[in-house]
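R.M. (postdoc): so does anyone remember the format we settled on? I'll just put the structure tokens first.
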């Protein structure tokens, strides 16, 4: 469950909107768990004519060769953005005023890095899967948790938001933060979009992995496509209380209860505490399996729309507490709507890139898309549990150029036009510059004291992961970004 939105590698929850502080109380201070030894880790749709022409010129002039090695073998069905529809994975989706997917993003759909043998994301996924397979066995000797890692990333808005009780006005739904095919269909922003359908199918315990898509800033730990893995476990009254003394007298639910910081209104406190204990024990065992027996863990209370109570797990890594996943007791309304109203459950979610970067010491999220053998061969191990300490490729020098422009006047925008959004600029930079762009930083936000006009200055850092760039190459890309920004975003250049 995307309880912790490890967006790319950062720990920013998708739907982590805190209620008023007066409505919440901390259940307890941070809980720290220690074990014996040290652990191992080493450290708007760009289809306007100008942008299409710029992109075609850019790739035709040789930059395709410079970027080609940064992507893996992709899908056989090539996506197409037409005038009236988007063709993707063999299906056609009508375009409307909400459509904002880009050719760059659609080109990533279908790669399934998490399913490519010996890719570092595959290794992390397989290690988690192996742990659950070996540690949790069903009554007939088969693994208790089923695994689902090949579900289509194209989902409905209802799947992505409504099924998870995310309110219509919630900021996580914003067009500027997601990739929409149209008003009703999108690229999933989290794997939890499939949670309701899997519970409705009768599954009580499952793991789910896949690629997810979010518009975000540009730096070494953020990428518009990343990968998540989540787990769900449901309990019947008998399953939860069968090993408890006088468990036959206990119940999952109560009538007339009230919602508190510790539980939901329909749950009994003893049921919630048992589920919470099972959840934290399960996840502590998982991170001990991944990080080693010396890992220190602590739990921090938090808020998600789809769980209550909710927690974030942090591990002590290189002297700092680092957030690695989010979890909680599933909202009963979610289970009721999925046909599992007689059960109570927990869910967790984590980012595969974040774990891989921590465990293997990978410094830049763009490397996960590399086809450079110097990168890939480091992860071809005989045993998936084998420790890998990434050996950096040669560090090619960065080049940076600044871009400064006046923002459009909000009062002068036409009907249906949106205000300037930083994410729109980041998306344009990705569309033109691709993986040559390492980082984009807003270095100046200026408001003219007399006219009130506002300008932004961004520093764009260019660095190829596999060779040295020339200033001539970078200047050509940068010029195209300047021209596209003026045409597509309505800004006025100050260069």
């Amino acid at each position: 469950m995307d309880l912790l939105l490890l967006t790319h590698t950062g720990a920013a929850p998708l739907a982590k909107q805190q209620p008023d502080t007066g409505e919440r109380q901390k259940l307890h201070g941070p809980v720290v768990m220690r074990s014996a030894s040290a652990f191992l880790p080493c450290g708007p749709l760009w289809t306007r004519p100008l942008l299409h022409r710029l992109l075609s010129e850019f790739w035709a002039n040789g930059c395709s060769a410079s970027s080609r090695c940064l992507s893996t073998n992709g899908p056989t069905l090539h996506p197409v953005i037409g005038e009236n529809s988007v063709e993707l994975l063999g299906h056609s989706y009508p375009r409307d005023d909400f459509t904002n997917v880009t050719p760059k993003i659609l080109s990533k759909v279908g790669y399934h890095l998490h399913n490519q043998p010996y890719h570092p994301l595959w290794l992390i996924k397989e290690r988690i899967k192996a742990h659950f397979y070996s540690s949790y066995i069903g009554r007939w000797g088969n693994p208790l948790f089923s695994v689902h890692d090949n579900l289509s990333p194209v989902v409905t808005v209802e799947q992505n938001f409504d099924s998870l009780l995310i309110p219509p006005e919630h900021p996580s739904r914003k067009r500027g933060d997601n990739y929409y095919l149209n008003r009703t269909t999108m690229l999933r922003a989290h794997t939890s979009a499939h949670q309701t359908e899997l519970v409705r199918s009768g599954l009580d315990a499952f793991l789910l992995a896949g690629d997810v898509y979010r518009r975000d800033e540009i730096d070494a730990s953020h990428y518009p496509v990343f990968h998540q893995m989540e787990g769900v476990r449901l309990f019947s009254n008998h399953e939860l209380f069968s090993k408890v003394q006088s468990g036959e007298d206990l119940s999952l639910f109560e009538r007339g209860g009230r919602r508190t910081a510790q539980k939901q209104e329909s749950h009994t406190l003893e049921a919630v505490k048992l589920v919470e204990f099972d959840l934290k024990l399960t996840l502590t065992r998982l991170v001990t399996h991944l990080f080693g027996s010396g890992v220190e863990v602590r739990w921090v209370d938090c808020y998600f729309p789809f769980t209550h109570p909710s927690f974030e797990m942090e591990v002590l890594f290189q002297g700092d507490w680092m957030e690695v996943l989010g979890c909680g007791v599933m909202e009963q309304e979610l289970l009721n709507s999925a046909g599992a109203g007689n059960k109570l459950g927990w869910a967790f979610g984590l980012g595969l890139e974040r774990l891989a970067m921590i465990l293997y010491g990978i410094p830049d999220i763009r490397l996960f898309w590399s086809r450079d053998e110097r990168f890939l061969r480091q992860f071809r191990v005989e045993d998936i549990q084998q420790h890998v300490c990434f050996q950096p490729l040669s560090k090619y020098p960065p080049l940076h150029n600044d871009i400064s422009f006046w923002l459009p006047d909000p009062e002068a925008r036409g009907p249906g036009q949106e205000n300037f959004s930083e994410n729109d600029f980041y998306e344009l930079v990705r569309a033109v510059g691709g993986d040559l762009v390492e980082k984009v930083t807003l270095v100046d936000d200026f408001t003219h004291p007399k006219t009130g006009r506002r300008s932004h200055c961004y520093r764009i850092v260019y660095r190829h992961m596999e060779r040295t760039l020339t200033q001539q190459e970078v200047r050509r890309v940068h010029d195209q970004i300047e021209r596209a920004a003026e045409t597509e975003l309505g800004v006025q250049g100050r260069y």
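R.M.: ...and that's the designed sequence above, right after the tokens. Also worth knowing: The chain has a mean pLDDT of 86. The radius of gyration is 24 Å.
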